[in-house]
Amino acid sequence: MYCYCKEAQNVWDEIEDEDHRTASAARPRPQASTVLNLSARKRLFFSATLRWSRPDFDFDLRTAVRAGVISDYTILVPFMTAGDPKPSLVQLIQDLPTARRILAFCNTVQEAKQFAKLLNAEGVQAGHYNGCTASLQRTRILEDFKKGPSRGGLRVLATVDVLSEGVDLPMADTCLFVEPRKGLRLRQCVGRVLRQHQQKVDALVVSPPIIQEADGGLQVDGELVRLLAELAGADPELRKSLAENSFGRVCLVDQRMNRSGDSPAVALEEAATLLCTKVYPRALSSYLTADDRWQLGLAQLTQYQQEHGHCKVPWKHRTGSEFALGTWVGYQRSARKANKLTAQQVKQLDTLGFQWDLRAASWEEKF
């Protein structure tokens, strides 16, 4: 959550929640004109996705978890075959008994209705909720969701956008994206399941999937990258985990249907490699600290050394994730000459057999 204040000269205070677009007084945006024209001595604005201003105070997601304000979470990345993802997601829900209250976010009302219908046909208690749902029916649906399946209520609530903000459902423990979201509220959707509840240990976020095409090729939707990027932007621990290619907070699960006879272990390993080499770097590109970037470079160089048996990376070489490894390697030599590398960094590179003086190495190879 971001928080920022605006001083004014008049007589009363004002607090604005969900304030994502209000800009500075110097350059107010049209959307902010109504708010900024109100008389106030001091304004306090809250936003989980601040877009136009720098915050005065940033209470990030990891700080909130450690303070016990919200629940911790795990990201589950489904690995699916191409086609309609709904049957695979139904099977996934059936395989996750600990996911007791699931908010399933869809792209359209029709899609949400279809998903709820499919779940009910497979014995999973599900309901549908949208902006046109009648008031009395909304109340009944939410009460059924709060009761849960153990008391004759709902386990899954399929929706589009109406439940992404401004609703308190702390018993919801799983956020599931039925198909890649095209809107701007991924973080808000996840936030619905992070609220504390006595029956909740950790929340679960089921991300957009990695897809295996009919020819065996793998595809990643940009919404998976965007989801990881938004969460990494709010959670320093997740940023560090992704930079280290760790699966500590991210789990990959094989939900493919109609497999073509390939080895599940090999296919899953290929999907994991895709996550580490293409998805993580793209998700982290805006948030890496200098140390994060160095560790990412070291990881890429380690992989190169394992594949080629040396660290003599061509200057223009880029990895499969478009990381400019050749440039990074060249910079390490310059950085050491300028005493910009720590002793630990030098030691880590030496362990890989890093050649600091290419001319000397070339001379030794020839003679």
From TrEMBL:
SUPFAM superfamilies: P-loop containing nucleoside triphosphate hydrolases. Pfam families: HA, Helicase_C. It comes from the Eukaryota. InterPro entries: Helicase_assoc, Helicase_C-like, P-loop_NTPase. PROSITE patterns: HELICASE_CTER (PS51194). Residues 88-242 form the Helicase C-terminal domain. Gene3D superfamilies: 6.10.140.530, P-loop containing nucleotide triphosphate hydrolases. PANTHER family: HELICASE-ASSOCIATED (PTHR33418), HELICASE-ASSOCIATED DOMAIN-CONTAINING PROTEIN (PTHR33418:SF1). This is Helicase C-terminal domain-containing protein. It comes from Polarella glacialis (Dinoflagellate).
